Amino acid sequence: MIRVTREDFSVDEVIASIRSGGMGAIVTFLGTVRNKSKGRDVDRIEIQVYEEMAVKQLQAIREDAITRFGVEDVAIVHRYGSLGVSDNIMMIAVGAGHRPEAFEACRYVLETIKEKVPLWKKEFTPEGDYWIEGEEYERTE
Amino acid sequence: MNVNLKFFASFRLLTGKAGTELEVPEGTTTSDLLVMVRDMYEGFNEKTVLYAVNGEYVGKEVGLKEGDSIAFFPPVSGG
Questions:
Q1: Dihedral sign, CA of B30, B31, B35, B36?
Q2: What is the ipTM of this complex?
Q3: Which residue of B has its CA nearest to A118?
């Protein structure tokens, strides 16, 4: 499963989309909206996406992880739009025969998404709104 | 020939738009286009921008074709 969506997702549904008899381990990562960022209170965030490219990139990352780590399957769901504190942002589920490759592949998928997939967070704080660009901040007003 | 430019995140603020069509000479490469766009928008840094042609990351000397979509954006921050 590869999905880029404005809607929330079910953790159980994402896991169910990859679960199979050959798996002895399913490792999941769930990213959520934190109420603080670089010392600022965060009221909410907005995520912008270049959707056609993001889907292509996520598909390539999934295929790469399966080949590179020998895992059985990978599901990735990433949301965009307006999200409140504690809301789900993204989920990765990796199913494998054994736990070492499942953990490794999950970490690899997450770090590669953070490096390559065209999604951007904008944080809304009492001090103003900020685009997050890599590790840097860009004040928007 | 005409190509389509797309801008994302803070680049929309910088350019004041989500995208635009641009006429460029035949044989224009991605690095030629980076210079053209830098000259069009004050504050556009062609050294740090990320770009993609038709949804794929490409190198600097890729030749562009009529109707290509070229996206310009800052470092990504998903996840």
A1: negative
A2: 0.91
A3: B76
